[in-house]
Amino acid sequence: VIAGYGIAYAVLLITGARLGERHGFTRLFLAGLALFTAASLACGLAPSVGALVGFRLLQGLGSALMVPQVMSLIQRTFTGASRVRALGVYSAVLAVGGVTGQVVGGALVSADLFGWGWRPVFLVNVPIGLALLLVGHRLLPSVAGERTRRLDLKGLVLLAAAIGALVVPLVLGHDEGWPVWCWALLAAGAALFVLFVFVERGVAARGGHPLIHARVLRSPGLAPSAAALFLVMTGVAGFSFALALHLQAGLGASALRSGLTVAPTMLGFGAAGLWWRRLPERLHRTLPLFALVVGALGFAVVGLLARDGGAVSWTQRAALLLVGIAGGCAYSPLFARALGRVEPEHAADASGVMVTVLQLGQVVGVAALGTLFLSRVTAFHGSSPVAGPAASGSALAVTLGAVAALMLGAAVLVRAVRGALA
């Protein structure tokens, strides 16, 4: 049920970005929103687990059609400093939406409205989606893409297959015990990526329209910023997953209480992402590097304080807030740096690349760091997935040490970014 959405979403993001360019960004955004809303209703009314899995796949498809268009619209509608501000607002909204979703979702599950259990978690999307469709039709600008550019179907199929071959084992590997087919798919995914690069080079050499223009990846700041953001998202996703397991399975907290515990992190992330540009401009270039180092220290502190398996203290909450603020001061400037200088005609390519990189980072983070957390629980306690606060706290400390290392790795990559923010 959980994996179906993530797999469909990750595999089809590039497709969604390219379709937006051909058929209009606003039109595809609204179409994706409509599909996501309808699929949410179907999920809430699903008569069986099999039907729920199918409707979750449709939800992932709707998101893949919708999400890339947001960045494409920002790229096409704003320029210069206005674009950087818009990207900052977008990242802040994502953070606030993330914490709101966790808290509201936890409240709905805990409340068990009308005895419906988990169903309201999906049904709540329906009125929100309908309201957004109504507002979107009226307010979103009508921005057309480059209709003359042909869709590279061969490249599209190859890239989707490569991403799918990587995502499926990463999502399902731990639950399945990492069988041989998982490793075979990972190897196949790497081979398909290499084949995709060769095919796209051939398309470009023949004067055709490759799925992703090579010059997009050469845009100032995009490649190193995207690589740094991949590490950041890997760490943040792994942190969120491991912390949720620690709180709910290790400490026995409810879903609502767990969501409220991480709320300071996400709110700090959103606030910093929105207000970082108010700092003196001379600090903008070094802000991500400084923030990543501070974030690494914050994760280390949270992990050290969690080792004894005790209840979450106010010191830990303060460290969680610091982690969020540092994350926002790193993520938003890097996001703006990656996309701030992309030419408008390459908006769809850049948007597709960035959302795919971020999604892959989340998948890798949950898979790799989630496996690390659960394996450490087993090592410390001898049973799995989580057995006792002390084992859970010790496992969380090890996992957050790995997260801190990822933040420092991202800081090293940030030094490769040349040019101040737009």
UniProtKB/TrEMBL annotation:
<feature type="transmembrane region" description="Helical">
    <location>
        <begin position="287"/>
        <end position="306"/>
    </location>
</feature>
<dbReference type="GO" id="GO:0046677">
    <property type="term" value="P:response to antibiotic"/>
</dbReference>
<keyword id="KW-1133">Transmembrane helix</keyword>
<feature type="transmembrane region" description="Helical">
    <location>
        <begin position="121"/>
        <end position="141"/>
    </location>
</feature>
<feature type="transmembrane region" description="Helical">
    <location>
        <begin position="318"/>
        <end position="340"/>
    </location>
</feature>
<feature type="domain" description="Major facilitator superfamily (MFS) profile">
    <location>
        <begin position="1"/>
        <end position="422"/>
    </location>
</feature>
<feature type="transmembrane region" description="Helical">
    <location>
        <begin position="220"/>
        <end position="243"/>
    </location>
</feature>
<feature type="transmembrane region" description="Helical">
    <location>
        <begin position="86"/>
        <end position="109"/>
    </location>
</feature>
<feature type="transmembrane region" description="Helical">
    <location>
        <begin position="28"/>
        <end position="47"/>
    </location>
</feature>
<dbReference type="GO" id="GO:0022857">
    <property type="term" value="F:transmembrane transporter activity"/>
</dbReference>
<feature type="transmembrane region" description="Helical">
    <location>
        <begin position="255"/>
        <end position="275"/>
    </location>
</feature>
<protein>
    <submittedName>
        <fullName>MFS transporter</fullName>
    </submittedName>
</protein>
<dbReference type="Pfam" id="PF07690">
    <property type="entry name" value="MFS_1"/>
</dbReference>
<keyword id="KW-0812">Transmembrane</keyword>
<keyword id="KW-0472">Membrane</keyword>
<dbReference type="GO" id="GO:0005886">
    <property type="term" value="C:plasma membrane"/>
</dbReference>
<feature type="transmembrane region" description="Helical">
    <location>
        <begin position="153"/>
        <end position="172"/>
    </location>
</feature>
<feature type="transmembrane region" description="Helical">
    <location>
        <begin position="352"/>
        <end position="374"/>
    </location>
</feature>
<feature type="transmembrane region" description="Helical">
    <location>
        <begin position="394"/>
        <end position="417"/>
    </location>
</feature>
<dbReference type="InterPro" id="IPR011701">
    <property type="entry name" value="MFS"/>
</dbReference>
<dbReference type="InterPro" id="IPR036259">
    <property type="entry name" value="MFS_trans_sf"/>
</dbReference>
<feature type="transmembrane region" description="Helical">
    <location>
        <begin position="178"/>
        <end position="199"/>
    </location>
</feature>
<feature type="transmembrane region" description="Helical">
    <location>
        <begin position="53"/>
        <end position="74"/>
    </location>
</feature>
<dbReference type="InterPro" id="IPR020846">
    <property type="entry name" value="MFS_dom"/>
</dbReference>
<keyword id="KW-0046">Antibiotic resistance</keyword>
